Amino acid sequence: MCRLLGSRSFVSEDNPINWWPNLIEQLLKPLSDNRPARYRSYDWKLKKFTRWHDLKPTDFVILEGVSASRKVFKPYLSYSIWLETPRHERLRRGLERDGETMRKQWEQWMSLEDAYIRREHPEQTADIVISGAADVPLI
């Protein structure tokens, strides 16, 4: 069995950077000890943390998000994939999904993402790097 989790569930508008301790404590530590995990997800429309989620240990957990392969997560990761996507393409996709009204928020997030990439160089520590450019066909 496999479960996909987005790190975006832990990020909030008032805490776009230092959300990762909650992900470790509520999710990664318990699952790595083969214990159930419980976490609360952020609702971007309501602008608050809402419902709780219970997660039983599974064979595989896929954690996705720009900083899903942070150095502090490494003890909990078996494999790391970095999708190298041009900045303009990331913005285009975000605005397509969230709407033009989110442009300012996206530009702020991308500034934080740029700082993370410069600081941690996930493309150098990933097990594999895949192009996420629009002109590269996905197979």
Written account of the structure:
It is a single chain. This protein is an alpha/beta fold and 139 residues long. Helices cover 34% and strands 24% of the residues. It is built from 4 helices and 6 strands; from the N terminus they run βαββββαααβ. The chain has helices spanning 20-32, 87-98, 103-120, 122-125; strands at residues 2-6, 37-43, 48-55, 60-64, 81-84, 128-131. Strands 1-4 form a two-stranded parallel ribbon. Helix 2 packs antiparallel against helix 3. The longest helix has 18 residues, at 103-120. The chain is globular, with a radius of gyration of 15 Å. The mean pLDDT is 88.
Task: Walk me through the topology.
Blueprint lengths: L1 E5 L13 H13 L4 E7 L4 E8 L4 E5 L16 E4 L2 H12 L4 H18 L1 H4 L2 E4 L8
Parallel strand pairs: 1-4, 5-6
Antiparallel strand pairs: 2-3
Helix pairs in contact: 2-3
Provide a quick synopsis of the model.
With 139 residues, the chain is α/β, with parallel strands linked by helices. Helix content is 34%, strand content 24%. Helix 2 (87-98) packs antiparallel against helix 3 (103-120).
Give the biggest sheet: 2 strands, parallel
Radius of gyration: 15 Å
> Helix coverage percent of residues?
25-40%
Instruction: Encode the helix/strand succession as letters.
Output: EHEEEEHHHE
Global morphology: globular
Quaternary structure annotation = single chain
Overall pLDDT score? 88
Note the total helix count.
Answer: 4
Low-pLDDT stretches = none
Derived from helix and strand composition plus strand pairing, the structural class reads: alpha/beta
Number of strands: 6
* Main sheet strand line-up: 1-4
Terminus-to-terminus distance: 23 Å
Q: How big a fraction of the residues is strand?
A: 15-25%
